[in-house]
Fold this sequence. Notes:
Layout: H1 3-12, H2 17-27, H3 50-58, E1 67-71, H4 77-86, E2 89-94, H5 97-109, E3 116-120, E4 133-139, H6 148-158, E5 159-172, H7 196-206, E6 209-215, H8 217-229, H9 241-244, H10 248-260, E7 264-272
Parallel strand pairs: 1-2, 1-4, 2-3, 4-5
Antiparallel strand pairs: 5-7, 6-7
This protein binds S-adenosylmethionine (SAM).
S-adenosylmethionine (SAM) is lined by residues 5, 8, 12, 45-47, 72-74, 77-78, 94-96, 99, 122-124, 139-141, 144-145, 183-184.
Amino acid sequence: MGKLNKEIEEHYFTDRLFEDIVNRLTNKGIDLSKVERSDIAGVDEFHVRGAVVSKELASSINLEGVKVLDVGSGLGGPCRMLASDYDCIVTGIDLSHEYVRTAKKLSKLVKLDHKTSFSQGDATHLPFEDESFDVVWTQHVQMNIPDKQRFYNEIHRVLKTGGYFLFYDIFKKDENEVSYPMPWASNANQSFLFKTSELEDLLKTLGQSKVNTNDQTAAGIDFFESMIANMKPDPNRLGLNLLMGESTKPKLMNLMQHLKKGALELQSGVYLK
Ligand SMILES: C[S@@+](CC[C@H](N)C(=O)[O-])C[C@H]1O[C@@H](n2cnc3c(N)ncnc32)[C@H](O)[C@@H]1O
């Protein structure tokens, strides 16, 4: 693994993550044989607006029973939602060993391991045959990837002709420097922001056609504001604090401020190959 990928894996590393989640569930009095997806929803979707935005994105096309790849799948929350609500067969790939280990164990915990599988790997070298998925899905991953061309080429390569590419991501709006830490990067060396117009050009060059895009910035700001207003001290909280550690607050505040001042934006979209 290259130096950058090691640094990025380190940025996301949390030791004994699954065990920490299980301890908190137990302390909350939840029977481990009856854990529901909703019990872990605060922690297993690592992007602005969590489970709500994934459901919105999923409802934008017909996903019933299809084969999906989630690139940079994290703890696998969106994969489990697609498996349980749409009967999809979902594969997740992620750079982080600890996230992949946790994703597998969480799927087993909520009894969705027969429809979801996870493996460790690099999004820029996908270990899959050409045209092997009906849908490719990615949320909040490309900001860690310097070689955008390679990242989207790989997505395009493994997607079937006639299949859909769904994304939800953070983009820069201007050339000004961004302050760190951010949820996806401890410092500027781990962050590679580009613009929505650049993504649009890139996908067009690959031959994909735009079905729709949605500016999610205002909804993202609302999410942060209500999250901050409702934050109560709770030692068993199962939130993104587990993933972002001691720097949770500066990371979230930085992202919210940049969205508010218009330096960054959130966009989701659907393209057809
Ligand atoms: C902010 S998290 C988002 C996780 C997940 N997509 C979600 O929305 O819940 C970013 C994820 O991208 C993964 N990642 C970063 N660079 C990657 C790469 N080159 N290949 C695969 N995964 C990568 C990280 O390990 C991390 O799990």
